[in-house]
Specification:
Layout: E1 2-7, E2 11-16, E3 20-31, E4 34-45, H1 48-80
Antiparallel strand pairs: 1-2, 2-3, 3-4
Length: 108
């Protein structure tokens, strides 16, 4: 991942290369006396096997992604001693990231 641009202190963009190629954007905004961090990830797979398996494996890929994002958010909150301010929310175009109580379940 390499930095593709930034607008301090509100946005950081990065470019991914390798098995996933595309861009990521972190947007920081003020919210309820704290900071809301939104991460938008626009990538595509570059490996043939991933592209071939994607239609059948999409629920597993999605679940794996959601778990990694949830764990990363919890890790950041723990490392910074800041509470997680928001419940898990769906990310655009892919369904939900967790259940109403914030837990996560594998795909069915």
């Amino acid at each position: 991942m390499s930095v593709a641009g930034s607008v301090m202190p509100s946005r950081l963009e990065a470019r991914a290369t390798g098995e996933l190629a595309g861009t990521g954007r972190w947007t920081l905004t003020s919210a309820d006396g704290g900071t809301l961090v939104r991460y938008d990830w626009d990538v595509r797979t570059t490996r043939r096997w991933m592209n071939l398996l994607a239609p059948a494996a999409r629920p597993v890929f999605r679940w794996n992604h959601d778990e990694l994002m949830r764990e990363g958010g919890e890790g950041l909150a723990a490392a910074s001693a800041w509470p997680r301010c928001c419940p898990a929310r769906p990310h655009s175009g892919t369904g939900r990231t967790g259940t109403r109580d914030g837990s996560s379940r594998p795909p069915r």
